[in-house]
Model the fold of this input.
Amino acid sequence: MTKKYHVYGIGNALVDMEFEVHDEFFSKNAIDKGVMTLVDEARQHQLISHLDAFEGKKACGGSAANTIIAVSYFGGKSFYSCKVANDELGDFYIRDLKAAGVDSNLGNGARKDGITGKCLVMVTPDAERTMNTFLGITENFSVDELHLDALRNSEYLYIEGYLVTSSTGRHAAIEARKIAEESGVKTALTFSDPAMVKFFRDGLAEMIGDRVNLLFCNEHEAKTWAGSDSLDDAINALKKVADTFTVTLGGKGALLFDGKHTIDIAPHPIRAVDSNGAGDMFAGAFLYGITHGHSFYEAGNIASLAAARVVSQFGPRLSAQAHREVLDIVLGR
Done:
């Protein structure tokens, strides 16, 4: 039976606001570099006031949203369940999601009053991305936002690891996984950030359950999960919780496990400008590949090139045309 959607995603709906800064900005404002830090609204307003001197870019985002939009831009059919408020940024989020060709739960019923979540993405000249996030209303993402018909009519469920920080979000992720398993929908999860693995490991284990079909992570996250500096130890640890997985290795490419064999994916030499969205793009491109008849190796090469293209520019997304170019290059079309 052909499913309506290739990927159904759930995650935090955040309006990404990206700025180029220097390391001094972090020391001056007591910001931990290179990780995602949750902040309250007052702290985020304070930081925004200090960022007024910098030029910023705005887009609907959140980790899973970036992945789901990539699936759509590559030519897949995707659905995203999330939560935004009845405010101006919520209106912006819905418009941007629709423009990317993604179906969502946001068109059904009135949105609640509140504040749509925002993520300040600060990029330094070394291409490192640092995020300070105020979750706003998405902190209360719950089973109420799940669209069960769309979930059951999808090939893959994709779960954002950041949901682990919210009790209702974590519960929604667990319920979505159970419904997917009962409905024959494959399950995929991303660890999202080393901090999620370090501080919310038990919650992530709950979200994974016995195991997921596909897990996405980077080398730092994999080693943190394993509690070891050895990549081999990390691979063995991941095999216990996932049938298949991908481990991105930064400038060294990526390592895939297809359930039987490990597969090395070569990197693409580029000048890194902005690492924001690289992992999200890798996941989106890879999910597109395996839901469109491509092998793990082919999907990994599509994902590797797409992620490299994202890193070589500012912002977590590529244009629709750039997605087609990636496919043309990798598939020799």
Residues 17 and 58 are 5 Å apart (CA to CA). The longest helix spans residues 167-182.
